[in-house]
C-alpha cells in the first residue's frame, strides 16, 4: 500500500508535514511500510486483530444488542511523537499533576484556595466528585492522585492542549502495553530500527509506586487491586495489571474491616492488606459512607483509610478534579500553588453557570462541543457541527435547566493520523492519553494510549462510541 493520494485536509497530520513529505520521525516508518509487498500490510492488520481475539483483549460496551464483549479496534500504523515534542509534554504533565495534588490536599484540608476566592466555593461544593467525608484526611505521604490519565489533543497548528483530567480510576494502560506487544510482532523490522522508548516497564513502576505508598511502619506491605468484578467494562485491565504486578486481585466480598484495618480472606484465614489499588468508583467504595445499597465495596474501608491503616490509590475524593467545570480553573490552580504559567494550555472553555458564557453558548451551539460536567466515554455530549436542530434544542433545554452541569468549548480541528481504510490510507482524528505516576516524584510513561475516531469525520475517539487505538512511539533523542 502506498500513501499516494493521501489527503491531509486542513488538519495537522501526525505523520506528514506536507503532501508526500513525512515528518522527520516518521520517515523510516513510511519507507518501511511502502516497501512491503502488495497486500502484506493488510495481512498483518488482520493478524493483529486475530491476536486480540485470541488473547481475550476486550472491553465491555453496555446496551449494545449485538453483544457487549468486543476487541478494542487496533490500527497497525503507529502514531509517532518526536523526542522534542515529548520533552515539552513531560514537563507540562508533571507541572499539572504536582498542582492538582496540592489542590486536593488543600481542598480537603485548609481550603486556602477557596478562602482566597481563586476557585469559587460553590463550584467545589456542588461538584459530584467532591466528598465531604474526606475533609480533614491526611492522605499517606501527602499524595492523593497516584495514577492519572490526562487526555491531550493537538490543534490545526500542532499545539497540544489538555482536553480533560482523569484522576479517579483512569483506564486504558493495559491497551498501551498490549498495543506495544502487537507492534513488535506486526512490524518488527520498523520497530527495531526506530529507536522507540519502552513502555514495558510500566507494571514494575506501578508496583514500586504501590509498595512505596504503604502506611508508615509497614516494611513488607501486602498490595491488592480491588475490582468491581468480571462484568465491569475494564475487567480485562484489572486482571492484566494484577497478573503483571504480582499483586492480589480482589472483590469487595474478599475484604473485611476489623478494628479499622482491612483484611483479605484467604484459605489460611485473614491477612491484612496495606495498600489497595482501587478500580471502583467512590460512591460504591464503602456502603457505610456512601451508597448503602452497594454490594461492590467494603463496609468500613473509609474509616480504615482515615485512620491511616490502609492506603488507597487513587484516594477517594480525587474526582473533584475531574469535574469539567473545575478543569476550567486548572490554569489558575497552577498559578496559585506553583507560581508558574501553565506549560500545556487548556482548551478555551465557557462555563454555562456564568450568565455571559451561557448566553454565548446558547447562541453558538452549532459551533460548540457541549459536555456534562461529570460524564465520560463520549456520553452526555453535543458535537455542535455534527448535530441537528432537535439535538441542539434538547441541549439548550438541559443547559438552561442545570447550567452548573455544562461547559462548552469551540470545536477544535483535532489532529489526524493515517489509518487503514479498506485498501487505502485515510486520515482520522486522534487524541493521546499519557499515564502519570505520582509517588513523591512524578513519572510520565513515554507514550500513552492514542485513541482514534475510526468513523470518517468523527471527533469522538472513545471506544464505546466506535473509536479504536494505535501504538504510540515516543522516539529517543
From TrEMBL:
<dbReference type="Pfam" id="PF14403">
    <property type="entry name" value="CP_ATPgrasp_2"/>
</dbReference>
<dbReference type="InterPro" id="IPR016450">
    <property type="entry name" value="UCP005522"/>
</dbReference>
<dbReference type="InterPro" id="IPR025841">
    <property type="entry name" value="CP_ATPgrasp_2"/>
</dbReference>
<feature type="domain" description="Circularly permuted ATP-grasp type 2">
    <location>
        <begin position="78"/>
        <end position="453"/>
    </location>
</feature>
<dbReference type="InterPro" id="IPR051680">
    <property type="entry name" value="ATP-dep_Glu-Cys_Ligase-2"/>
</dbReference>
<protein>
    <recommendedName>
        <fullName>Circularly permuted ATP-grasp type 2 domain-containing protein</fullName>
    </recommendedName>
</protein>
Amino acid at each position: 500500500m502506498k500513501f499516494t493520494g493521501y489527503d491531509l485536509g486542513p488538519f495537522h497530520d501526525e505523520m506528514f508535514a506536507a503532501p508526500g513529505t513525512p515528518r522527520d520521525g516518521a520517515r523510516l516508518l513510511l519507507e518501511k511500510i511502502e516497501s512491503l509487498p502488495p497486500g502484506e500490510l493488510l495481512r498483518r492488520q488482520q493478524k493483529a486483530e486475530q491476536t486480540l481475539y485470541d488473547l481475550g483483549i476486550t472491553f465491555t460496551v453496555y446496551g449494545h444488542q449485538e453483544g457487549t464483549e468486543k476487541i478494542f479496534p487496533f490500527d497497525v500504523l503507529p502514531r509517532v511523537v518526536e523526542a522534542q515534542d515529548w520533552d515539552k509534554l513531560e514537563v507540562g504533565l508533571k507541572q499539572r499533576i504536582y498542582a492538582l495534588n496540592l489542590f486536593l490536599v488543600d481542598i480537603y484540608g485548609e481550603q486556602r484556595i477557596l478562602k482566597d476566592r481563586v476557585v469559587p466555593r460553590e463550584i467545589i461544593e456542588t461538584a459530584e466528585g467532591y466528598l465531604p467525608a474526606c475533609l480533614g484526611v491526611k492522605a499517606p505521604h501527602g499524595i492523593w492522585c497516584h495514577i492519572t490519565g490526562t487526555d491531550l489533543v493537538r490543534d490545526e497548528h500542532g499545539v497540544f492542549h489538555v482536553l480533560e483530567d482523569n484522576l479517579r480510576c483512569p483506564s486504558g494502560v493495559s491497551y498501551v502495553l498490549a498495543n506495544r506487544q502487537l507492534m513488535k510482532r506486526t512490524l518488527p523490522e520498523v520497530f527495531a530500527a526506530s529507536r522507540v522508548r519502552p513502555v514495558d516497564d510500566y507494571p514494575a513502576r506501578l508496583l514500586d509506586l504501590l509498595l512505596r505508598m504503604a502506611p508508615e511502619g509497614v516494611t513488607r506491605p501486602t498490595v491488592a487491586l480491588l475490582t468491581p468484578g468480571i462484568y465491569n467494562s475494564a475487567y480485562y485491565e484489572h486482571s492484566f495489571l494484577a497478573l503483571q504486578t504480582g499483586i492480589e486481585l480482589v472483590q469487595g466480598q474478599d475484604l473485611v474491616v476489623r478494628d479499622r484495618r482491612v483484611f483479605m480472606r484467604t484459605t489460611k484465614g485473614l491477612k491484612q492488606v496495606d495498600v489497595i489499588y482501587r478500580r471502583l468508583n467512590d460512591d460504591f467504595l464503602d456502603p457505610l459512607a456512601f451508597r448503602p445499597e452497594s454490594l461492590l465495596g467494603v463496609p468500613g474501608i473509609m474509616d480504615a483509610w482515615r485512620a491511616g491503616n490502609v492506603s488507597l490509590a487513587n484516594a477517594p475524593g480525587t474526582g473533584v478534579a475531574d469535574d469539567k467545570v473545575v478543569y476550567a480553573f486548572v490554569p489558575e490552580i497552577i498559578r496559585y500553588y506553583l507560581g508558574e504559567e501553565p506549560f500545556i494550555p487548556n482548551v478555551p472553555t465557557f462555563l454555562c453557570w456564568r450568565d455571559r458564557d451561557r448566553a454565548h453558548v446558547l447562541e453558538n451551539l452549532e459551533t460548540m462541543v457541549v459536555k456534562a460536567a461529570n460524564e465520560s466515554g463520549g456520553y452526555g455530549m453535543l458535537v455542535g457541527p455534527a448535530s441537528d436542530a432537535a439535538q441542539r434544542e434538547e441541549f439548550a433545554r438541559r443547559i438552561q435547566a442545570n447550567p452548573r452541569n455544562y461547559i462548552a468549548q469551540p470545536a477544535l480541528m483535532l489532529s489526524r493520523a493515517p489509518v487503514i481504510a479498506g485498501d487505502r490510507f485515510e486520515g482520522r482524528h486522534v487524541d493521546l492519553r499519557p499515564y502519570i505516576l505520582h509517588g513523591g516524584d512524578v513519572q510520565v510513561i513515554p507514550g500513552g494510549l492514542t485513541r482514534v475516531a475510526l468513523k470518517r469525520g468523527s471527533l469522538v475517539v472513545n471506544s464505546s462510541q466506535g473509536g479504536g487505538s494505535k501504538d504510540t512511539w515516543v522516539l529517543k533523542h
